[in-house]
Design a protein that fits this description.
CATH architecture of chain B: Up-down Bundle
Strand order of the largest sheet of chain A: 3-2-1-4
Largest interface: A-B, 27 and 30 residues
Largest sheet of chain B: 2 strands, antiparallel
Shape of chain B: globular
Helix content of chain A: 40-55%
CATH class of chain B: Mainly Alpha
Order of helices and strands of chain A: HEEHHEHE
Shape of chain A: globular
Structural class of chain A: alpha+beta
Number of helices of chain A: 4
Helix content of chain B: 55-70%
Largest sheet of chain A: 4 strands, mixed
CATH superfamily of chain A: BolA-like
Oligomer: heterodimer
Number of domains of chain B: 1
CATH topology of chain B: Four Helix Bundle (Hemerythrin (Met), subunit A)
Radius of gyration of chain A: 14 Å
Structural class of chain B: mainly alpha
Number of helices of chain B: 6
Chain lengths: ~120, ~150
């Protein structure tokens, strides 16, 4: 998906969602090099998927990490139920992405740093 | 927007789809057992797509899937099946975690054809099958539960 193809309104929604994850990263004490965010806007169907890739995930298992991120998103977007419902999150580590295969970042996802 | 007439042009029958998703899942399990991980993953994802199409037919009380719904986007199919809000409920969070994990690879399903088998490992395939078939929180298990409830 080309970044230029995103309309201004879509970009604004995507940026807001990305910022929520950046805020989450800040609460974990992660610096800019400790994580990356990728985005797949599927707004024709009211969905926006984000992949958060971190150097390491702090909790014991995937679900515990996922719950922590979802709780943060729900709290941060409690006044925006549309966006709260639209966002889906996948968590990865740099090592997993390096493995590729199932964990590769699909080409159709945008790097949030380019937004 | 579907072309004129697409909602009245019928595609596969619900009965065929019902049999097909179970066939694809069985084939995926055979491929997994044989160590063909990339195709095991791809075939399991086809099973999920077809399973969702059965649920769309059920939700809309149709014996044949309209051509317009012969789409491959899983999020769209979940919505058409009437389950997109249900999976967002707090009690379904573990299922949603599995569902979200499946979506990126499902979006690139066609790309698997062009990738060497070595990129797909046994542990990755096992992870995907657990996301799909775990009896408590697997996506297919959850869909079956909701299919019976409705």
């Amino acid at each position: 998906m080309a970044l230029e193809a995103l309309e201004a309104e879509v970009k604004s929604i995507v940026r807001r969602a990305v910022q929520v994850l950046r805020d989450y990263a800040a609460t974990q004490g992660w610096g800019q090099d400790d994580y990356r965010i990728y985005v797949y806007p599927n707004l024709d169907w009211n969905r926006l998927q984000l992949i958060l890739v971190a150097r390491a995930l702090p909790r014991k298992d995937y679900l515990a990490n996922y719950n922590a991120v979802c709780d943060f998103i729900e709290e941060r977007l409690k006044d925006d139920p549309w966006l709260k419902h639209a966002i889906g999150v996948v968590l990865r580590t740099f090592d997993q992405v390096e493995q590729g295969g199932l964990y590769a970042i699909p080409r159709s996802y945008l790097d949030a740093d380019d937004l | 927007m579907p072309a004129k007439g697409e909602f009245t042009k019928s595609g596969a029958t619900r009965a065929d789809l019902e049999a097909a998703w179970q066939d694809r899942l069985a084939e995926a399990q055979s491929l997994l057992a044989a160590g063909h991980y990339a195709w095991a993953i791809a075939t399991a994802l086809y099973a999920l797509e077809i399973r969702l199409k059965v649920l769309v037919c059920k939700k809309l009380d149709l014996e044949e899937l309209p051509k317009a719904f012969e789409i491959h986007d899983l999020e769209s199919l979940l919505l058409l099946a009437g389950l997109s809000r249900r999976i967002d409920r707090r009690g379904a969070r573990a299922v949603r975690a599995n569902w979200e994990n499946i979506l990126p690879v499902a979006r690139e399903l066609n790309e698997i054809r062009y990738q060497p088998a070595g990129k797909w490992t046994a542990s990755q395939a096992a992870a995907l099958f657990e996301q799909l078939s775990d009896p408590t929180n697997g996506v297919l298990s959850w869909l079956s539960k909701h299919s019976k409830q409705r």
